[in-house]
Amino acid sequence: MRHITLTLLLCVSFVSTVCAQTMAFTATNTNYQFTNFFSDVDTFSITVVIDAPLAPGVYVNPDIVSASYAVSGALTPRTPSGFPSFAWQRDMDSTEFYVQGSSLNFALRRSI
Predict the structure, then answer these.
(1) What is the Cα 15 distance to its own chain's centre?
(2) Each residue of 20-49: pLDDT tens digit?
(3) What is the SS3 assignment for 10?
(4) Residue 50 and residue 52: Cα distance in Å, rounded?
(5) CA gyration radius, the chain
(6) Which residues are CB-neighbours of 70 under 8 A, at least 6 positions away?
């Protein structure tokens, strides 16, 4: 989970807000239908604040103010840790987000 590719944000509806000269994308597990591949990951959220005003165009790894994500759920019995569940949260700035290998690519268009 060290690398997150946020292109999936564009595949479903997302919440977009404007704050001064930034825009924020937020997605949670309620936005998706998915199959769990590891135990019961049942709650997640991703919020990325982009250092640009909301405007039509193509964005490839734009400057970001911050990225936050959280994942939680139950673990299958007999995991190496012995814990029955997990809750993980991470907050980072633009430099850390891109240096770790994450990417963010999307396009915005005007409504018809």
Answers:
(1) 12
(2) 588 988 888 787 776 555 556 678 888 999
(3) helix
(4) 6
(5) 16
(6) 43, 44, 45, 87, 88, 89, 90
| Count of domains for the chain | 1
Structure confidence by residue, pLDDT tens digits, 81-94? 778 887 889 999 88
Strands 57-60 and 105-108, bridge-based pairing: antiparallel
* C-alpha span between 25 and 20 (Å, rounded): 15
HSE of 20, CA atoms in CB hemisphere, 13 A = 4
Please tell me the distance from the alpha carbon of residue 44 to that of residue 28, in angstroms, as a whole number.
6
Model confidence pTM above 0.85: no
Q: Which residue segment(s) compose the domain that 28 sits in?
A: 6-35+43-69+93-108
User: CA-based angle 81:82:87, to the nearest 5?
Assistant: 70
